[in-house]
Amino acid sequence: MQTVKIPLSIEPAKAALKRMTYDGIIVKGNLSRLNEVAEVLTDHVNVSIECGVDPQDLVVIQGTATASLELTCQRCGKGLKAEVTADFVYTPIRNAAKESEDPIPEAYDEIELDEYGSISLVHLVEDELMLALPIVAMHEPKDCELGNKNMSFGELAPEATVQEKPNPFEVLKKLKT
Ligand SMILES: [Zn+2]
Fold first, then answer.
1. 168 Cα to the center of ligand 1, angstroms
2. Which of 76, 113, 141, 152 could make an SS bond with 147 (beta carbons 3.0 to 4.6 A apart)?
3. What are the pLDDT digits (tens) for 13-65?
């Protein structure tokens, strides 16, 4: 199958009018924040995005991203392979600080347009994949090196408390402030 790189950014209003769909990949090198918290095992992540206009005339950017990752098991500290899928529905807004007159339906996340009326698809997908990561990555007990030792759930192995990779939620929090 031929793989196409999706555009790094789009103008949602135009894309929605043309009902654009993007089915392709984002190369690993563009996902540096995700790479900091998990190892991306393939050279890309798969992304499919549809743009359209809903009955309320809101522009909608909807899609799915899938990544094969290696996380760090919080119990034994060894690698843990995981398929992470993120589904998202966004509506672009002009100015996040300004209250819009019509409330945005709760089903949509809001994404702020930049000064050119564009959004970064790469950032959007990366944020979504980071949010989709398990809060605590752990092997199934039978697969975990420490799983068969008598440890109660939630207790961390001494070596696992030394976090080599930053918590993705902390990273996101910093970015959003
Ligand atoms: Zn483990």
1. 19
2. 141
3. 999 999 999 999 999 999 999 999 999 999 999 999 999 999 999 999 999 99
